[in-house]
Specification:
It is built from five helices and seven strands; from the N terminus they run E-H-H-E-E-E-E-H-E-E-H-H. By secondary structure, the protein is of the alpha/beta class. The strands form two sheets. Strands 5-4-3-7-6 form a five-stranded mixed β-sheet. Strands 1-2 form a two-stranded parallel ribbon. A hairpin with a 4-residue loop joins strand 6 and strand 7. Helix 1 runs antiparallel to helix 2. It is elongated, with a radius of gyration of 22 Å.
């Protein structure tokens, strides 16, 4: 199944993949060679640490490659957002509490639920897709049903709302 994501989300995946493949993996492979040259590998902590790092890097590369291959890049700025769709920022009123809540629908890898960025696969997002301002939605949760009224739908760039954007420093395995 293709995984929807923004252009910036896709670019970040590719950036991490290239960094690990072209910079981090060769550096750690060199560390492993240097450690192996020190002699007895059975008690060589540097050798085992480098070997373990390489395993983590290879697993991450495999995962990233799979995500890149299965991605469906969507540019939400091209949508009208008269109806809720990928990339929409939706203001809703919780009917039970009368409080306003705001959510932006994004890809799984871009989501930050604590910051209002919710996965397009979440129950709330699924209930909102295709709805318009003024529509009421019901979301079945494990222990309750929540009801909302859609107040406003607009477009805001997903990455302008993210608070946790990984950098090259965070791509590396320490």
């Amino acid at each position: 199944m293709l995984e929807p994501m923004s252009i910036e989300g896709y670019d970040l995946l590719v950036e991490e993949f290239k960094y690990l493949l072209e910079e981090e993996k060769p550096k750690v492979a060199h560390e492993k060679l240097v450690a192996a040259a020190q002699g007895d590998r059975s008690e060589n902590a540097d050798y085992h640490a480098a070997k373990e790092k390489l395993r983590f890097i290879d697993k991450r590369l495999f995962y990233l490659n799979k995500m890149i291959q299965n991605s469906k890049i969507i540019d939400p700025s091209l949508h009208s957002h008269t109806k809720v769709s990928f990339g929409s920022t939706v203001s809703v009123i919780n009917i039970d509490t009368d409080e306003e809540e705001t959510y932006t629908l994004c890809g799984v890898l871009e989501s930050e639920p604590e910051n209002g960025l919710i996965s397009i696969h979440s129950p709330l997002a699924k209930a909102m897709i295709g709805k318009e301002a003024g529509d009421e939605i019901r979301v079945k949760l494990p222990k309750s049903i929540k009801e909302y009224e859609i107040e406003k739908i607009e477009y805001r760039n997903i990455f302008s709302l993210k608070l946790n954007i990984r950098t090259k420093k965070e791509f590396a395995f320490h």
